[in-house]
Amino acid sequence: MSTNEPTPAEMYRDRPVYYCSGCAAVLCLQDELISKAFSGRDGRGYLMHSATNVKLGKKEDRPLLTGVHTVADVFCVGCDERVGWYYHKASDHSQKYKEGKYLLERERLIKDNAWRLEE
Ligand SMILES: [Zn+2]
C-alpha cells in the first residue's frame, strides 16, 4: 500500500499551468493545450484536453462558426465565473475531435511559469 499518492496540489506543483483570472485557482495544465487558434465568446479561446477546478452548466445546442455543437458552459469552482465551455457533441464530422474537450476563454486565464524560476 502506497502512502505517497500525490494530492492534486502536488501533482500541479511543478508543472506550468493556467490560473483563473478571477480567483487564481488552477484551471488546466499548459501541457493539455491542443490549440490557441479558437474563438471564445469574448475573444480568443484555447482548446484543452482537460480542465480542473471547474463545473459544467446545463447542456445545450449552440450554433457556432463550425456548425451546431452540444456544449455546456464551464464555470470555475473557486469564483463561479464562466471560463469557457465543454464540447459534449459536434454535429459535423470534421468537428468530432472537439468532443470531450474544453474551450477556455483566453482572457479568463493567467499563464504562470514562476515555479520554473526556482530550478
Ligand atoms: Zn476562479
Automatic annotation (TrEMBL):
Signal peptide (from-to): none
Entry-linked InterPro entries: Yippee, Yippee/Mis18/Cereblon, Yippee_fam
Keywords (A to Z) from UniProt: Metal-binding, Zinc
Record PROSITE patterns: YIPPEE
Molecular-function GO term, any one: metal ion binding
Stretches assigned to the Yippee domain: 16-113
Pfam family, one: Yippee-Mis18
Family listed: Belongs to the yippee family.
Protein name, UniProt field: Protein yippee-like
Organism: Dentipellis fragilis
